[in-house]
Prior knowledge:
The structure holds three protein chains of three kinds. Helix content of chain A is 31%, strand content 21%. Chain A has helices spanning 53-60, 88-94, 106-109, 116-126, 133-146, 152-157, 165-177, 195-212, 223-229, 247-252, 257-266, and strands at 13-23, 28-38, 42-46, 69-76, 81-82, 99-102, 183-187, 215-220, 232-237, 240-246, 314-316, 319-321. In chain A, the strands form two sheets. Chain A has an eight-stranded mixed sheet with strand order 6-7-8-3-9-10-12-11, sandwiched between helices. A four-stranded antiparallel sheet of chain A has the order 2-1-4-5, with helices on one face. In chain A, helix 7 runs parallel beside helix 8 (195-212). Chain A starts with 12 loop residues before the first strand and ends in an 11-residue tail after the last strand. Chain B has a domain at 50-60 and 91-263: P-loop containing nucleotide triphosphate hydrolases (Rossmann fold). Chain B has ten helices and ten strands. A six-stranded mixed sheet of chain B has the order 6-7-8-3-9-10, sandwiched between helices. In chain B, strands 2-1-4-5 form a four-stranded antiparallel sheet, covered by helices on one side. Chain B is globular, with a radius of gyration of 21 Å. The N and C termini of chain B lie far apart (50 Å). Chain C has a domain at 70-171 and 211-290: MetI-like (MetI-like fold). The longest helix of chain C is centred in the C-terminal third of the chain and has 37 residues, at 192-228. Chain C starts with 5 loop residues before the first helix and ends with a helix. The chains are: A alpha/beta, B alpha/beta, C mainly alpha. Chains A and B meet through helix 8, helix 9, helix 10 and helix 11 of A and helix 5, helix 6, helix 7 and helix 9 of B.
Amino acid sequence: MVSPESQTASVNEVLRVEGMSVASPRLRLVHEIFFTLQRGDRVGLIGESGCGKSLTALSLLGLLPEGVRASGSAVFGESKLDLLGASEKQLAQLRGREIAMVFQEPMSALNPTMPVGKQVAEVLRIHRTVTNRKAADAEAVRLLDQVRLPDPARAARAYVHQLSGGQRQRVVLAIAMANRPSLLVCDEPTTALDVTVQAQMLELIAGGVTENDSSLLFITHDLAVVSNICQRVIVMYGGRAVESGDIEAVFRRPRHPYTHGLLAASDLSAVDEHGGLPTIPGSVPAAGQFPEGCVFRNRCQRADDACLSEPRLTAHEAGSVACWHPLLENKA
Amino acid sequence: MTGMEATAERPLVEVRDLCRTFGRTPSKLRSRARQVFALVGVSLEIARGERFGVVGESGSGKSTLVRLVAGLDQPTSGAVYFDGQLVSGRKERHLGFLRRELQVVFQDPMSSLDPRMKIRQIIAEPLVATGKADSLNRVYELLDAVGLSRAAADRYPHQFSGGERQRISIARALAPSPSVLIADEAVSALDVSVRAQILNLLVDLVHDFSLTMIFVAHDLGVVRRVCDRVAVLHHGNLVEVGTAEQIYSDAAQPYTRELIAATPVLRYVVGGPADDLRSAKLKPARARFGGSDEWSR
Amino acid sequence: MSAAAPISTVRAAAGTRSGRRRLSPTLWTGATLVALVLLAATISYVWTPYDPVAIDASSRLLGPSAAHWLGTDALGRDVFSRIIVGARTTMFVGVIAVGVGASLGIPLGVFAAMSGRFGSETIMRVVDIMLAFPALLLAILFSAVWGAGTLTAMLAIGIAVAPAFARLVRAGTLQVMSTEYVLAARVAGKRELTIAGRHVLPNITTMLIVQASVAYATAVLAEAGLSYLGLGTPPPTPSWGRILQEAQTVLFSDPLLSLWPAAAIAVAVLGFNLLGDGLRDRFDPQLDDRR
């Protein structure tokens, strides 16, 4: 299995995912994903609901629900540990230390019965970054200050219900960044936040990642958000990566018809021939009901018999695309 | 600042000094009264045939406003009028006129349909409740209007996707041939491509059936697209009202400007120029995160 | 797009339930045990090896044999016949008691949920008072007033299980009332009572079935206890509790005699409890996937 983006493994490589698939006993949910993250990379994983982006992230952390298994390889860090084959013990050592995750809902990510400062301190002590209790508490306050919580010393003593949604999510970020992870995975971290708070949160994430020289895997359905925080993007549909590359190139010159349709539908100033918003015909099929061959062919205007066999992710000069009839530069 | 404007005919929906407070009034026995001021002195007028947008973040009071206008809740003070008739402060049995004329499409496609009822029962519900005939033909008509097959009538909600369920909600709302449709975050829980379809549908239906639409959302971009006039709410206060273009390009109030600046804009447009003039014009400072020197690889 | 429920959406997509299967061993076991009791009761109407009340002084305290499968009791009556006839009482009392409990509890719960704060609190305090009286105490009370018997027992047990129904129904109703489809029904012009009947009740049915099953188990145990104390079914009608009480007098000489009614009670109570658990497991994930 040759990765279209294969390079000789370098010291700067944080994550190399090759042929990752996620399946339940009855269904294949994610098919053969390939990507690589270097230190400081910011990659967005975009797609609509059911495309498998969350599952991809969860399998990296070994947090798949019961009955769902991942196969392939996801080689991480300098120790070159395969996350997909790792034991729970090995993963537990990495989580919160080398790899951190920020979820969408801060309320369910934080313990309502503990002051938030203690929760930050806890993650420091679990991974023995700081062992002394007092020192951990002090470091916790410093981390809360870093995420710009007003009056961090007081905030550290507050309980979750005393904080607003945006503040809670900042605490979650502080916990995630506490041990300077090499990989930060964010799954729709700002979707549940107000738009004014969202902007601040994105700044904090970008800032935190830059400061720690971490890699960022940012999962979202919001194309505008991802275009402002990531350098590269992977577009997913039906459990497959259909396009990837530099975000500017992909967004300005999308090759895959789905990417093009998604961008057109996201652009609220765009107008189609009827004067309405551009849409992708049809709707996303339920899991397990995607067509054979190219998953997008039943909604694609460029589909023909060639599309009955599944296209592989093929590299081109600005990225890769999995399509038999990609949109080329000179054709709009 | 109010939304009062001189209009030739009477506004279809009018809201005067509307206040809604939740929680008990403070008394001497309780030192700390926890009151929530959901709406504070909001006044608006919506003309017949208008596409009126209401924008606000969480806690802005927009959902409360929807409930008050739809007669689902009583204000603490102030009044709601529909076509000149008083809505607020009246008992349910006197609101028959409102139920026939004003319908709501809600946000969550998962919980806005009774999982135990068949689609045709769901769609016919407003007809049955207001005493009109429950006709299968009408149900088919409505399914056609929202782009669903007639076979859907005998199925159950869980057999449909989020976008399809919103179509069913819209069909239900249109059943009694109302004159006003309130879309309460109707597309907020939908995927982007589905959102585009549903927005197109709403705009078409509003046009075809000459409806007045009140479109409530937190996404300014969406509201700007489908609405003529827009009101901005913040912590229960009406911050500003104006035409969609006015608000977006030349907002008078600082909060509105902040809201616009914070709304993420697609940084690269299909076929767009290398230097993104669009985003530079619309978003003064924070177009990107992490600084421009991060982008070189 | 709300990705707030990624896990359950993932589970739904993956086609798995949270570890438990739809037709779980729990459900099967429970259903089988209940069916066993039901079968015993049904057969007893058509055929019993011996007349359950026929006293035969010459065959006292015989052990299990080909003639008497479970032996005979202190009065020479065939134990097996008495047990299967006793199943009738168990099922019968259970049905009536749960029926009484549900008829009392469900309307109370619905009204509590739909009344304003004052009404709701008042109703729930009444329910709390009902809860404070154990079935036993109520049975004694009723027996003192109306005389001991099956009817008073059923009434007492019914009142004892009603609060559980009321609380459950109130919670379920509140949950349903807060959904958007109920809001849409109000916008459509539906009246509260119609909403209660048309929307609330169908959506809390599965919850009620589970509760009924569990209440049944409680009723069986309560009836056995009451009969044991002489407050339930009067002799000579066999009832498991009564059989147990009679076996008590010869406990040290013929311990097996106590075993049979105890085992029967255990089987019935366990069966209904497992059935309730199994039904709950079966219904809940389905509700999850719909979301």
